[in-house]
Specification:
The structure holds 2 protein chains of 2 kinds. Chain A is globular. Chain A is built from no helices and 11 strands. In chain A, 37% of the residues are buried. Chain A is mainly beta. In chain A, a hairpin with a 4-residue loop joins strand 7 (62-67) and strand 8 (72-77). Helix content of chain A is 0%, strand content 58%. Chain A has strands spanning 3-7, 10-14, 19-26, 32-38, 45-51, 56-59, 62-67, 72-77, 86-93, 101-103, 107-112. Chain B is built from no helices and 11 strands. Chain B has strands at residues 5-7, 10-13, 19-24, 31-37, 43-50, 53-57, 65-68, 75-79, 88-95, 103-105, 109-113. In chain B, strands 2, 4, 5, 6, 9, 10 and 11 form a 7-stranded mixed β-sheet that branches. In chain B, strands 1-3-8-7 form a 4-stranded antiparallel β-sheet, with no helix packed on it. Classes of the chains: A mainly beta, B mainly beta. The interface between A and B is medium-sized, with 25 and 23 residues.
């Protein structure tokens, strides 16, 4: 069964600190992997998209990595800000056309002053 | 900056009633999507739509659901006979050209079925 797992379930860090969120997937075939940020009660906002051939992609203070061999991805947040408090969701496209999306449960990040 | 809009923001309906959720995708986008998120659970893919037809749909998207692009701007999700378990936040999204491009999500419609 196609699944996406994320860890930790929740994380609390102090403003200015770095953190890394993990994503493991058992999705085949693989098209691409996305990281989204979702504020409470809002729609997800895309952070990065990576295809099979990409192993790292950055978007400002967000850097995603992908190891397609081990089926793992990570999202690293540098110099966290209070506004980074949100859920971070890993999504894997489960077919060659990239339109069958499997969502992870998300990691709830809280950044404290 | 262009954005995806959705109406209504909240909808309360009685079980068995039909509901139509509306979305206005970003104007030059060609791929459209519906997702749902039951309270406290993960986002689930429902359907993708391109060139006036369904491209892909999940197991959730059964005969109770239908999508339509009735004109050049709106994209709708219809639930024919709502069930209690249809209560969720429904998100519309769109992408510019190809499905592997960035998807832009709307703010969602909170549906409550009583």
């Amino acid at each position: 069964k196609n699944q996406v797992e994320q860890s930790p379930q929740s994380l609390i860090i102090l403003e200015g600190k770095n953190c890394t969120l993990q994503c493991n997937y058992t999705v085949s075939p693989f098209s691409n992997l996305r990281w989204y940020k979702q504020d409470t009660g809002r729609g997800p906002v895309s952070l990065t998209i990576m295809t099979f051939s990409e192993n790292t992609k950055s978007n400002g203070r967000y850097t995603a990595t992908l190891d397609a061999d081990t089926k793992q991805s990570s999202l690293h947040i540098t110099a966290s800000q209070l506004s980074d408090s949100a859920s971070y969701i890993c999504v894997v496209s489960a077919d060659n056309y990239g339109q069958n999306f499997v969502f992870g449960p998300g990691t709830r990040l809280s950044v404290l002053p | 900056e262009p954005e995806v809009t959705q109406t209504p923001s909240h909808q309360v309906t009685q079980m068995g009633q039909e509901v139509i959720l509306r979305c206005v995708p970003i104007s030059n986008h060609l791929y459209f999507y519906w997702y749902r998120q039951i309270l406290g659970q993960k986002v689930e893919f429902l359907v993708s739509f391109y060139n006036n037809e369904i491209s892909e749909k999940s197991e959730i998207f059964d005969d109770q659901f239908s999508v339509e692009r009735p004109d050049g701007s709106n994209f709708t999700l219809k639930i024919r006979s709502t069930k209690l378990e249809d209560s969720a936040m429904y998100f519309c999204a769109s992408s510019e050209v190809f499905s592997q491009e960035t998807q832009y999500f709307g703010p969602g419609t909170r549906l409550l079925v009583l």
